[in-house]
Amino acid sequence: FPSQTVTGNFAKVIHGLNANQLTDQVIQRSKRMILDTLGVGLLGTSTEVCHKVAQYSKIYSSDLSSTIWGHLDFRLPPLYAAFVNGVAVHSMDFDDTWHPATHPSGAVLPAVIALSEAFPQKKKISGLDLLLAFNVGIEVQGRLLHFSREARNIPRRY
Q1: Are the CB atoms for 88 and 44 separated by under 8 Å?
Q2: pTM of the predicted model, to two decimals?
Q3: Fewer Cβ atoms within 10 A, N terminus or C terminus of the chain?
Q4: CATH (residue range 21-146)
Q5: CB 62 within 8 A of CB 134
Q6: How do residues 81-122 score in pLDDT, each as one tens digit?
Q7: 65: phi > 0 → left, psi -120 to 50 → alpha, else beta; which?
Q8: Coil, helix or strand at residue 59
Q9: Which of helix, strand or coil describes residue 74?
């Protein structure tokens, strides 16, 4: 028997990541990915599907709230803000992608930003912490894709 499960090893690697491991190249690429995703997301806020999910999500409220991109006066609970902003990013279908097919930033950035906004003022995270969280999200996606049989079959299906 292996001394550690795949899940345990996965969790150990992810939990062990820290900002000191972000190289200059990773930081520069991450900033570019974030800027591209924000641009596509802002453009996507004008789509019909984004308007529909925003209208639907207005029924939810909580003490914590996060911004809906492009609408400074429209805030939702972090879960729904991440959902609406993620739909905005994906609705244009210009967000980044990699092989096997996935859109890493559109799934990660809206969640990271929504959560970071929900922190109390005295516990706000730094830009470097945001970059680390973003990269951890990207790393999780990449590792899950690596283990996915479904993802490995994508090139044969299309």
Answers
A1: yes
A2: 0.85
A3: N
A4: 1.10.4100.10
A5: no
A6: 999 999 999 998 777 877 666 788 999 999 999 999 988 888
A7: beta
A8: coil
A9: strand
